[in-house]
Amino acid sequence: MDALMAALVAALLLHATDRTPWLIAGLAPRYRHSGMVLAGAVAALMVVNMLAALGGAAIALRLTPNARALFLALALGAAGLGCFGALKPPERLAGWRTGPLLTPFIGMLTLGFGSAQFVAMAIALRAGTPVFAAIGATIGGAVIAGAAIALGEPGVAPLRRRTVRLPVGMLLVLAALVAALSALRLI
To answer: Using an 8 Å Cβ cutoff, are 34 and 28 in contact?
Structure first.
């Protein structure tokens, strides 16, 4: 259950400050079927988070507990450092005629395995419960996608600013430092 909450909080922070809401907020008004757009996005999140969690579970068998904790520190640190850079806009998928369900599904898959999935993988690896990590990461991403649909493009635009991304990055880097020091048995 710890993996579920950790993955949910991490996904909320990471998806809110990445390209996910930007893509979903741009697709929802174009199709006027917000429920279908959200369903496509959530389906893609389920696929990538389950693959990430299963990958974490497979790697966990080969690592010691300290190495697992260090892997989590690496994932959190990479996600935190990613918040310090500028975001490129996602592909607008303007010419696509795949409909309100398939377009967000494919669009979310093109965003690929980002920092949220890397952290979900590390949480699954550390906690040993890949299903809970995948569920938590999917719920967190789904909440952000739903909020992006509700807020629209003007509402999600502030999430791309440095004033939002920098504190999230600093929080993740701090969590990475604590996890690394704990893994090295220094605290």
So the answer is: yes
